[in-house]
Amino acid sequence: VNFKEIYISYNELEAERIKALLEENWIDCIVRSMRISPYPLNIGNFSEHRIAVDEGKLPEAIELIREAIADEYISPKGKFKPK
C-alpha cells in the first residue's frame, strides 16, 4: 500500500478522530506526529499531525474529511496538503 499525506491537523485528538472516521469507511490510513516537544503542547506547526491514506482511496478520503468539517464533526482549523 502506498500512502499519501492529505491532511494536517494541529490537534492530536482530532487527528485520531479523522483516523477512526476513515477506518470506519474501509480506508487505510496512518497518523504521523510531527511534534518536536516532549510536552503535550498544541502550538501551531510545532504540533502537526499528518494524516496519510492509501493512494487508491484519495478521492473518498478527501470527501469524507470535507463532509466531517461541514457537519462540524471536526474543526476547520486543519488543512489539506497541496497536491
Polypeptide structure, described:
- The chain has helices at 12-24, 58-70; strands at residues 3-9, 29-33, 49-54, 79-80.
- By secondary structure, the chain is of the alpha+beta class.
- It has a 4-stranded antiparallel sheet with strand order 2-3-1-4.
- The chain contains 2 helices and 4 strands.
- The chain has one domain: Alpha-Beta Plaits (2-Layer Sandwich).
- The two termini are 19 Å apart.
- The mean pLDDT is 90.
Morphology call: globular
CATH topology: Alpha-Beta Plaits
Number of strand elements: 4
CATH level 4 superfamily? Hypothetical protein rpa1041
**Could you estimate the helical fraction of the residues in percent?**
25-40%
Secondary-structure-based class equals alpha+beta
CATH architectural category? 2-Layer Sandwich
Count the DSSP helices: 2
CATH class: Alpha Beta
Mean pLDDT over the full residue set? 90
InterPro entries: DUF2007 (IPR018551), N-reg_PII-like_a/b (IPR011322)
Domain DUF2007: 3-68
Organism: marine sediment metagenome
Pfam family, one: DUF2007
Task: Note the main attributes of this structure.
single chain, 83 residues, alpha+beta, Alpha-Beta Plaits, 4-stranded antiparallel β-sheet, globular, N-reg_PII-like_a/b, DUF2007 domain-containing protein
Structural topology:
Elements: E1 3-9, H1 12-24, E2 29-33, E3 49-54, H2 58-70, E4 79-80
Antiparallel strand pairs: 1-3, 1-4, 2-3
Short structural summary:
By secondary structure, the protein is an alpha+beta fold.
